[in-house]
Amino acid sequence: MSYQWRTVFEYLPEFLDAMGLTLWITLQAFLLALVCGLVAALARNSRWVMFRLLAGAYVEVIRNTPVLLQIFVVFFALPSVGVRLDAVTAGVVAIGVNVGAYLCEVFRAGISSVARGQGEAAQVLGLSPRQTFASVIAPQALRNVYPATVNNLIQVLLGTSLLTAIAVPELTGVATVINARTLLFVQVFALTLLLYLILSNALSFAAGLLGRVMFKPALDQARPGLWPLRRTRPSAIPVEVSS
Amino acid sequence: MKQSKTRIVSVAVGVLATLSLVGCTPGTAGDSSDASFESTATSSALKTVLERGTVRVGDCLSFAPFGFKDESGEPDGYDVDIAKRLAEDLGVKLEVVDTTSANRIPNLQTDKVDVVFCNFTRNGERAREIDFTDPYVVASQALLVHKDSGISSAQDLPGKTVATVKGSTNADVLKDLGIDVKTDEYDTSQAAILAVKQGQADTMIEDSNFLAYQAKLNPALEVTSDALVPLEYNAFGVKQGDQVWVNYLNQFLFRLNASGENKSLYNKWFGVDPTYPLNPQY
Asked: Contact, B109 vs B198, CB < 8 A?
């Protein structure tokens, strides 16, 4: 192994620490995004116009401005109004709120993808609106939008790289610092890309397994042969019968 | 047409060959060129400047507030103001030549400029290539802090957060002093300053004059007065071997300092009086 690679591998503990922080931020931010997205999706379908307006404003403002700028606002501007978040928290909040806006639209699409008859049938069977949503609409909606939701999880993971701008020592930030110290940019960035690939594939692998456990019958997912999901059979999703 | 061109080229080649032969032969031709070299070496840049009626000053115009271009594209800044005083003193016109840190010495050696300002730190390495005048401004590494932070020296720093720029070695100074701090590495110095301003970091370490200027732009911030590294004495650089020109510039600087004009120019651009004296104290 050439001395360049040896030099870079001496920094491996720092890379792995950074990888851990990246994963930790990703999971927290995605959890926040799920909550934001779900609340906003429900609010957008609410019968109160105030909720619909608020949720609409949230989605349109957040989805139509750059996430880097939102990170700067949360970290640099909020202290001026007395809200001081440390860099990691600021990053979690900014990315969680940002991806929440995208998830809101995903969830909304999922809810409206469930055939109207399902809700009506539940009503006829005497289920309360809450029960209808929790046991009839939501499971089918989530099933329909599961791949899109996993996409957003990956988007959160890759989005954490922007936190280097507010000095969070996550993977990209640590890579740029090590690059500045060693100037071995080919080796440093190649290793960083590899670590991101490992992270994102591990996450989507885990999400795939979760999907397999969660949905019966299993989701029909296109995956290369290597994956345990390849044995999925064509799904038997209830098909709406047009009258 | 084509033929005549060819002929001209061949004649030119012949002439050049003859000349090069002459150049090679030792004797009168060699002696006379030595003599002319001697005469240019003794004639000072001072004389050249006065005869030309223009002094060419190398200024870094991408290093506010030492040098920058104002709204109308004209050079302005602390170094440029001193260059204007120098031109006034010589009674000649000023020509500001935009220079970068990297080409300060080449510009002097190839006679592109008569003198270089550019926050030029004197060190032995450079003194082997060019000559320096007496210092006109002194720099160190200092701390930029919030006015109400309670930090007045590096001794107040243990456990605090220091904002630095990625790849800079500024925070290593503290490590050398044995002071344990958390460092946050930002992409630009502007981001690091913003972090201090907004309370996201406790302090930032940078060139003391640069920080003084930033504190002038952000009244909530101030620069501590203790020097973290040995003081850097910044001077004018000139081409090596021109003592007449160095002497002139030194006594120009002496008058600029003695009259208090340098101090008031510093205050104009950095918002405070110079922190460190121009002469080392023993």
From this structure: no
